[in-house]
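Record type: monomer structure entry
Structure origin: computed from sequence
Chain ID: A
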Amino acid sequence: MFLDLLHFGSGAQAVHYFLFCLGGILGTIQGVAVHYERGDLVWFDGRGGYVFSLLAVAGSFVWFFLTDQDIFVPGLAGGELFALFTAAFVVAVPITRVLAFGAARVRATVAAPKRPAREKEPLL
């Protein structure tokens, strides 16, 4: 019943809005995760995380408003915008977790001290 109310039109604007929300949400999650030192969500430590957050949010805004030519033509309305934002959030959380896990593994591998090779004992 509720889904009958959603009309996504041609779909291009819906895809653009979904990607816009996804980029903004990923950037926001990173900024908050760096601020509160959530190692399970952080992709870049320290200042790099803040810079990435700023670039992701600002970049998604700039990209959306430059690429979507039909922004002022009636298209998506409240229900569609809410559905796409919610879908982007649901997709952004697992993406954040997977990439943070990968980044933590890379940081652990790079920071791990190299163990010296053991010398062979003489056979005599």
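Annotation 1: The chain has one domain: 10-111.
Annotation 2: The helical segments are 12-35, 47-67, 78-111.
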